[in-house]
Specification:
The chain is mainly alpha-helical. Among the domains are: about 70 residues, no CATH class; about 110 residues, no CATH class; about 130 residues, no CATH class. Helix content is about 50%, strand content about 5%. The strands form two sheets. A two-stranded antiparallel ribbon has the order 1-2. A two-stranded antiparallel sheet has the order 3-4. Strand 1 and strand 2 form a beta hairpin. The termini are far apart. About 20% of the residues have low confidence.
């Protein structure tokens, strides 16, 4: 028996029969039951599950006095409600940009959808916003206060609390817009000598538009992160670029940012800097610049980390002095070299040790195109390489070709005597060996065909 208190305040008695009590007990224990009885006439219609979540307002629960036993059993039979969608928090909304789908005609059972795109730096939709400092009147006393705060920040960790150093740093950042230029220069010099300065302070000083302030840190401070230096390099400020290129150590990533500036003076400082590191792609790009800007050629060819393929490719653009330097530095002779050249010869199916010297008599009266074909047959190279040798006016390429053809000293002298630099070319012929000449011709052929180390140049 159950006593229920209805809305009118009078108690109402209801009696549970054995059948209804047994049915309710099985239902509450999870046992299978027959379909629920029909909805009572006074029951409100169920809300359609097709309605979008968040747009419908649920009615408050009905008083328990209006629920009969049949209603209780039917409510237990109802399928579980889908969990409501959790609203996006403000923090998540800042990370992702929600773009609603274009409005479409409403259809039964359709729910509104949102598409979420993560906007990243570099995307067209990404907009970077920076907070700019407000202009403030200059205050001579701000400089003295700033240096006192810097003393607090420079104290060892055992002698100060992190909260003290943090407050000093934040106060110093607030004083910087009011500091005179002379005080800022002193501040930059002292920050440059600190072992672990504040990252926020360093970032603020290296982004100062006055090179007197940012220069010492850009060139000498070792505590600056590469990401901050790359950001400064991307501004393409020539004064800042030249100072960054003179840093004692330069990572490959920072070198890429400096090379992308296409600034010749920056590249000259970078190539001269023996503390700069380059990826192989960066070296290739520098060789392209050196081909058009002779001022970069000597520093690039004389670097300790310049690989032979770069030097051999630059050979065609170098003056005579640098050409002979390349031959003396990057070429050598050994039994291993002979074995490797033999492997190349077998792979190409040619015998490169024997040349048809009768072709030399045709060179004097041959056209440029015919001369290229003659060299191709004489020293077993491609016609493109033969054409480059025939068109070269320096005489070094001809000397290499004739050495690979197996000419004697006397025959070479008879051909080269008319050249204005005959004496130097004869000395070069003496220092060359057959293997050295064949190695250089092999690299020249690879460059024309775009294979081996030169495959990356074709892709670029």
């Amino acid at each position: 028996m159950s006593i229920v208190q209805p809305e009118n305040g009078l108690p109402e008695r209801r009696v549970f029969t054995a059948e209804s009590f047994h049915s309710l007990k099985l239902k509450l224990s999870g046992a299978h039951q027959s379909p629920a009885p029909a909805t009572l006439p006074d029951e409100a219609p169920a809300v359609s599950s097709a309605e979008p979540v968040g747009e419908s307002i649920e009615a408050p629960p009905r008083a328990s006095s209006h629920l009969g036993l049949g209603e209780i059993i039917q409510a237990t039979d109802a399928p579980p409600r889908e969990p409501e969608t959790i609203a996006q928090t403000p923090a998540a909304a800042e990370i992702a940009t929600v773009v609603p789908v274009e409005a479409q005609p409403a259809s039964a059972g359709a729910q509104p959808k949102n598409r979420t795109f993560a906007v990243r730096p570099g995307d067209a939709a990404f907009v970077e916003r920076r907070v700019l400092e407000k202009a403030q009147p200059e205050d001579a006393g701000a400089g003295e206060q700033a240096h006192a705060l810097l003393d607090i920040m420079a104290m060892p960790t055992s002698g100060s609390l992190p909260q003290e150093r943090a407050l000093a740093n934040d106060t110093l950042l607030r004083l910087i817009p009011r500091m005179p230029l002379k005080s800022l220069r002193r501040l930059a010099s002292r920050t440059c000598m600190m072992e672990a300065p504040s990252e926020m302070l360093v970032r603020r000083l290296i982004n100062d538009p006055r090179i007197e302030v940012s220069g010492p840190l850009l060139e000498n401070a070792m505590s600056v992160h590469d990401s901050d230096l790359i950001a400064v390099a991307n501004t393409r400020n020539p004064a800042s670029l030249k100072l960054i290129a003179r840093r004692r150590l330069i990572s490959p990533a920072l070198s890429v940012a400096l090379i992308q500036s296409n600034h010749v003076e920056t590249l000259l400082n970078l190539v001269r800097n023996q503390g700069a590191s380059f990826s192989i792609e960066s070296i290739w790009r520098l060789s392209y610049f050196a081909a058009d800007h002779p001022v970069l050629q000597a520093p690039l060819v004389t670097r300790q980390d310049t690989p032979p393929p770069i030097a051999f490719q630059l050979f065609w653009h170098l003056p005579s002095e640098l050409r002979r330097y390349v031959l003396s530095r990057f070429l050598t002779d050994s039994e291993t070299i002979t074995r490797i050249l033999t492997m190349n010869m077998e792979a190409q199916g040619t015998d490169q040790k024997y040349a048809d010297l009768s072709l030399l008599s045709k060179l004097e009266h041959a056209s440029p195109q015919e001369a290229g074909q003659i060299f191709s047959r004489l020293i077993h190279v491609s016609e493109a390489t033969g054409a480059r040798i025939a068109d070269d006016a320096g005489g070094e390429a001809l000397t290499v070709a004739l050495k690979a053809a197996g000419l004697t000293r006397a025959k070479f002298a008879g051909i080269i005597d008319k050249h204005p630099d005959a004496a130097a070319l004869k000395a070069m012929f003496e220092t060359l060996s057959f293997n050295k000449a064949r190695v250089l011709l092999t690299y020249w052929d690879w460059a024309v065909m775009g294979t081996g180390p030169y495959a990356r140049t074709v892709a670029s």
